[in-house]
Design brief:
Blueprint: E1 2-9, H1 14-18, H2 22-38, E2 43-49, E3 54-57, E4 60-63, E5 68-76, H3 79-83
Antiparallel strand pairs: 1-5, 2-5, 3-4
């Protein structure tokens, strides 16, 4: 078994994020928990939100934002098997 990094992308831009309700956040966390339980054999680290991102270059360090919202380290027999793990699909309210 190998370990692979899964990166989840969010579709909301900064303006859309401001409109996400606490209920929607709660629903997302519930769906994420169901996914983690359903695939309990796969995640090594199932919940690593990507916040306070820093870009490090030869020019220095700066804050930045992008659509990547979370990551998970998963175990699978191959990269193809890791890619086939069922991912969360959320429908916006």
């Amino acid at each position: 078994m190998g370990r692979y990094l899964a990166i989840l992308n969010g579709a909301a831009d900064d303006a859309d994020k401001a409109e996400i309700t606490e209920q929607h956040r709660s629903e997302f966390m519930n769906v994420w928990a169901v996914w983690a339980q359903k695939n309990a054999q796969a995640p090594v680290d199932p919940d690593a939100p990507l916040v306070r991102k820093k870009l490090v270059t030869t020019r220095g360090v700066e804050d930045f934002t992008d659509s990547k919202t979370a990551s998970a380290i998963v175990e699978a027999a191959s990269a193809d098997d890791a890619a086939r793990l069922p991912l969360i699909t959320l429908i916006s309210p």
